[in-house]
Amino acid sequence: GASDIIIPGAPALVIEMKRRDHMQSAWQDGQVEYLTAAHQAGVFACVALGCNAAWEAFEEWLTRQARS
After folding, report:
1. Which helix (H) or strand (E) segment is 56 a member of?
2. What is the 3-state secondary structure (H, E, C) of the chain?
3. Tens digits of residue pLDDT in 1-22
4. What pTM was computed for the model?
5. C-alpha to C-alpha distance for 35 and 5, rounded to whole angstroms
6. Which of 13, 38, 52, 65 is placed for a possible disulfide with 7 were both Cys, Cβ 3.0 to 4.6 Å?
7. Both ends of the chain: CA-CA distance in Å?
8. Residue 46: phi, psi to the nearest 5?
9. In angstroms, rounded to a whole number, what is the distance separating the alpha carbons of residues 68 and 66?
């Protein structure tokens, strides 16, 4: 299914959130396929292990937006 964080843009940002300890997380049906399709469509797509990683991904996305 759809990822946890989706921010429209050019490119959009798609973040799948998992726990910092990835051993405590599980993938749901369709999540990998969604991320793969988003990436293939040119979206900034990633998996974030915890909120700090999600924030880092957001900051990287903003940096790339500023360069465009």
Report:
1. helix 51-67
2. CCCCEEECCCCCEEEEEECCCHHHCCCCCCHHHHHHHHHHCCCEEEEEECHHHHHHHHHHHHHHHHHC
3. 889 999 999 999 999 999 999 8
4. 0.92
5. 11
6. 13
7. 29
8. -155, 170
9. 6
